[in-house]
Structures are given as C-alpha cells and as structure tokens.
Amino acid sequence: MEVLKEKVEEEEEAEREEAAVRAERGEKVVRPMEVQREEAPMTQEMLRDLEKKLSDIEMAIPEKLSTFTKDTIDTSKLPLSYQSNTLKEEHLLQVADSFSRQYSHLCPDRVPLFLHPLNECEVPKFVSTTIRPTLMPYPELYNWDSCAQFVSDFLSMVPLPDPLKPVVQEEEKVPPKKYAIKPPRDLTSRFQQEQETKKLEEIKAEEERQLREEEERLLDVEKAKTDPLHGLRVHSWVLVLSGKREVPESFFIDPFTARSYSTQDDHFLGIESLWNHKNYWVNMQDCWNCCKDLVFDLGDPVRWEYLLLGTEKSHLSLTEEEEDGLNDDDDVENLGKEDEDKSFDMPPSWVEQIEISPEAFETRCPNGKKVIQYKRAKLEKWAPYLNSNGLVCRLTTYEDLECTKTLEIKEWFQNREDMLELKHIDKSTGLNVDYFKPGHPQALRVHSYKSMQPETDRIMEFYDRARVDSLVKREETSKTMTEYYRGRSDFLSYRHVSFGDRVKKLSLNSAESNPRPIVKITERFARNPEQPADEDVAERVFLISEERVQLRYHCRDDHITASKREFLRRSEVDHKGNKIVMTPDMCISFEVEPMEHTKKLLYQYEAMMKLKNEEKLSRHQAWESELEVLEILKLREEEEEEHRLTISIYDTKRNEKSKEYREAMERVMHEEHLRQVEAQLDYLAPFLAQLPPSEKMTRWQAMRVKDECLSDFKQRLIDKANLIQARFEKETQELQKKQQWYQENQVTLTVEDEDLYLSYCSQAMFRIRILEQRLNRHKELAPLKYLALEEKLYKDPRLVEFMKVFV
C-alpha cells in the first residue's frame, strides 16, 4: 500500500508542477471549484478501487511445484515443522500473498515471484524460512580472511623486480682465444633451400587454411542450433555481497559446482529477486544489459523493493558527510517514536539441521559417480575406494563432435599401493604413459611404453635419490639401452649399450637364460675435480666385438682438444698356449701434453688390465639392467592385475586387520564382562526359592539344597561335553562325506572345484581341531569346577553352620 500511496503523490506533484508552468506562461488555468473540492474524495476512491482490484487478482500457482513424491520420501517420518505452519508463518504467508498481488498489479509483464513454494509435505513455505542460518551470517558465506592472508603470503614469496632499478642481464665473460678455426665452406645450394622452405610453407599454409575452414564450419553448425529456452530458464544462485570480511566485489557461487563467477558474467541474463534468512528483495532495475549494470545496494528501495520492514535491512550507501547529517535529523524525528515498532521478524527456519555421515560425504555425489559431458570431451568422477582399482577421475577427449572416435584418455588414481597417480593413453600413437608418486618399490616415476613385452621401445624415469645407483632415466629399444645417472660417487653420468642378434635357443624366457650379446658399451663421466684433466676419463667405449677400448679424457680449460687413447685388447694366450707379451702397437694414444710415464709398457699394461676388469663390470651391470627391466615389467603386470589399495589404520571400516583386532578386543571384553556377571550370580537362588519363605532352614533342607545344586551343575557339565562331542562327530562325518565325494568325482573336477574342496577341507579340519581341543579342555576342567563349587557351598554363609555340624 505504501507503493500505491507514493504513486498517487507523484501524480499530484506532477499536476501541480504543470499548473505552475502554465501560470508562469500566462495561461489561464481552468479548474472548477467542484473539481477542487472533489479531489481528496477522488483520491480515496481511487485507493478503494485499487484495493478492490488487488483483492480480485488471483495468483496462478502451479499445483505441483515440488519434485518430491510420496514414493521418494516418507513424509510420516518428517518433523512437525515440515507438515504444518505456525501462526507466525501463516501471517508471513498472508503478507507475502498481499505483496505478490501488488507486484502483479504494478508489473503485469514480469514473471510471478517465487515466494512460497510447496515442500515435501505439500505445505506452502516462505523461501526465506527454508534457509537455516549458520554461525557465519549472510552474506558472509566464506571466511575471506584466510583467503586474503593466503594471497598476501603468496605475493610475499614471489620475487618482484624493483621498478626503479632497470633489469640488466650481465653477459658471460669469455676469455679471449688465441686461435680461431675457420668453419667449413657451405657448398649447398641456397636456391634449393629456398624452394624447399617455400614448399614447406605452402603445405603448412594449406593445412592451416583447411583447419580454419573446418573450425568455421563447425561454428556455423553450432550457431545454427538455436536454444528454444534461451532466457526462460530460472536458476537459484548464491550471491556474496562486497563490503564485509574484505570482499572487494560482489560475485556469484554456483551451488552445484561451488565455482565462483563475476556479476559481469554473460551467463546471467537477469535477476528476479534476492532473499536470505531475514528478508526478501525484488529487483526493480532494468536487465537489458544482463547483470553488468545492476547495483547491489539492497538499502535502495528504488532499485530493490523489500518485503519486510525490519531493523536488520541493509542501509542505503551514503557518504560520510550525508551520514553525519542524517544522523542528527533521525535523532530528532525518532524522538518519542522508540516504542512504535512496525517491523515483522522473520520466523525461524523450519528445516532441520543437515547431517551428513562420513560415508555419504565421501561419496561426493549421488552413488559416488558423476559424468560431465563437454564439447569433444567427457569427464567422469568417482568417489575414493568406489572402484577396486582406485580410479577417481577419467578424462576422455574425442576427435569428432559425436564423441565416437577416442583421441586420448587420462585416468587419475588415489590410494594405490603401487603409487600409480596418472595414466595417459594416446589412442592415435598407442603410447601409454604411467606417472607414479614417490614410494614405488622400484622408485619408478614415469613409465612410457607401447607394449608390456620386453625388448620393446620404452622409457623409464626414476626417483634417483631413492635408488642406490642414482639412476635417473632408462631408454630401451630392441637393439639399445641408454641409462642416465646423477650424483654418483664414480661420476658416471651416461651408459649406452648396443646389442647384437641373439643366438637362437629354445627357452621359456629368452631374456634371462639367453641374454642378448653385447656389441658396444659407451660410458661418459662427469668431471672429477680431484684429478688432472689429462687423467680424468670423459668417455669410455668398449668395442667388444672388435676387442678394442677407446678412451677420451676431459679437456683442459686452456686447451681446445682433449687427449685420447685406444687399446687393442687381445687374449692373454695365443692358440698354441703361449703367453702374449704387451707390445707398443697395442696402445695408440694422442696426448696434448705428452708425459714420459704414459709411454712405458708397464703403465699401458696396467691400464689395459684395469680396463679389462671394468669391461667385465660394465657388462655385468648391463645384464643386471636387463634383468631389472624384466622384474619391473613383471611387477607392473602383477600390480595391474591385483591393483591393491592402501587403507589408513584409522579407517576401521575398510582396514580388515584393524577391524579384526577391534572385534577381537570387543570379544575379549564381552567375555570378561560375562565372566564377571557369572561370578556375581547367586548359584543357590533357584534352589532356595523352592523353600517356604517364612520358615527357617533346617539341616536336612540345607543338605538337600547342596546336593541339588551339585547335581544340577554336574548335569550341566555332562550336557556341555555331550554337545561338544555331537558337534565333533557331525563335523567328522561331513568331512568324510566330502572326501568320499571327492574320490568318486576326482577325474571330472575342474581346477576351481579342487580349490573349493581344498578350502573346505582346510576349514573343516580347523573346526574339528578346535572342537577336539575344547572337549579335552572341558574334560580336564570339569572335575576342578565341580570341586570348586563344592568348596563354595561349604563356605557359603547360608549353609556354613549346617556344613560344620555335618562335618
């Protein structure tokens, strides 16, 4: 009603302004006295007419606004707040209904307001009461202090250049060279090179043109598919207003994905209304430019029409001077009106507190699986431990829009015992790449392969600090194997092994029993600062088939060439058995600065013998590398078949060992409790209850009670022994029947049937053994228990005086 009064006052003000303008122009204002007198009654009459029109307006509310049905939710188990409304809620619904009629009258072209939908029990509920406020009031939905602190910490770690100091990159100082070698003359034809370059550029331009045309065609196809529901969809989002908790600007949050979006995002076409647990606001601004020009000042009644007039509503944003000026006026105007309270408090929420169990929270989505379809891609997500292989995410990209031709697959894993983290499968090339976290038994980090068969192309990368040999990477083909090292004590950094054709030999595993013959081994070493450069080997080549060894030493800083040495390795004896003597032609050397001791045959002989031993060691290490590759491949096959998952010791529901231990402890505690209860039982109560309650017990009655108690206990011991004996005989007979069945059908049994038979026999023998032990133990303890009970009866305070007379 306040809105209607404001509208009438605006019309009267406009008429007075128009009359004043006419009077200034000299125009005669003709206004009969009758009209002037009837002006106030006409205003009241207009208000009555509007009230009548508003009362005649009927809101078209859909019959079924809720997607919940009786089949999905049992409404009888819901609390009373779901099934009915309180008096305050009924009053609020009437206020909301009146507000909705006024809104429909003033804005007939807009969509009806979403004010009081039906809940699960078909009861209308105001939308603000469906929100259950938490410890952090709206709009402070998240703790932005921690986010700001994180940003500041991150910026403090990033080194930023000083804007006042120019960044100068110092050039590396190279010592002047005494000699310069002229490069060889280029004899290639420049014309041919230009023609080849031109041809390649034409081919590349043609491919880019075809690709661009294909993309344009796909865009045209997508644009042709118009959305018939564009602008008609209504969705609820979360709005976080700026101003509090250091929120610099307002933004939206998608409640389904928890992603934040700016209010300038093009996905938002407009806003109909806002609400929280305190009030409801209707957007009165034009959304012709989506939400980009909206002002989110909820205290401005021109832009946001509020439903409830309360003390908690947002105030209009003003400057400090205006606020100071208005405060004084408000104090004067509000003097004496403190007792007048026209506000209406929002009723408390009727929704129960949401309780999510750890199991349901861990699923993260219905049934623990979520599929998101993108353009030429599909993303699948699973909850941890839902898949037996630990798969939690899979991203599949396709070549076409119909998603029929797979391009590549990426799979993410968690809680894998083999520490597998990511598997990348390229369908176009057939290349598989496995990524591992630290902790693999073989310190494997990355494994690239096309086939799991040995002696095929593959690349293995390792965590070098977790290995004794400091291996970083191993590259293998059908004929070669290359290994890279880092930080070794012997300064070895590279080893390349070339293999020859294997001699044909029948064996189950040719790689182990019939290894490939080694033709050449090339090893490279890093610089050892403790040795002179002329004596520090940089590269060592073992030409095994040619029986030669080539050495190349490190180059000095003041030299441009390095020393080299080559040994002709011969056998120690000839074909006649005569010992071969070292000769000068067996060592060919080039030394930058010749030294006398290196020319002696003894030095050369010792160097050749040392190289011979090192060659054996290198060949043995190459053979061990081959065996390690076979071991890793075998281990990977077992891991892919078993795909065991690691379970925390604190996860008692999945950890079987922890679960068994807990159950055993509970069983022991329960048995101890029963033992204590049994100790507290009155073993004479059933027999004393047979005596007259008022009469005093006689000696004859006491002896009868004692004999009946002992007789009953003896019978219980006999019954227990018979029960154990019966179970023992039953298990034995069933085992004999099973063995007889096995003897009759042994020929026709499958491997699975034999495994089941062996498993049954093992369990049956275990049960028979346990029953036999229990029977023997019962036979040993029964007499002792009988004597112990008899002693207790003699010492019982109710029978002790009669037992003394008897003794």
TrEMBL record:
Occurrences of domain CEP76/DRC7 peptidase-like (ranges): 234-305
Annotated Gene Ontology cellular component terms: cytoskeleton; motile cilium
Dynein regulatory complex subunit 7 MORN domain mapped to chain residues: 366-648
Domain Dynein regulatory complex subunit 7 C-terminal: 695-802
Pfam family, one: CEPT76_peptidase
Taxonomic superkingdom: Eukaryota
Positions with biased composition (Basic and acidic residues): 334-344
Coiled coil, from the record: 190-225
Localization per Swiss-Prot or TrEMBL: Cytoplasm, Cytoskeleton
PANTHER family in UniProt: DYNEIN REGULATORY COMPLEX SUBUNIT 7
Protein name in UniProt: Dynein regulatory complex subunit 7
Organism: Panthera leo
Gene: DRC7
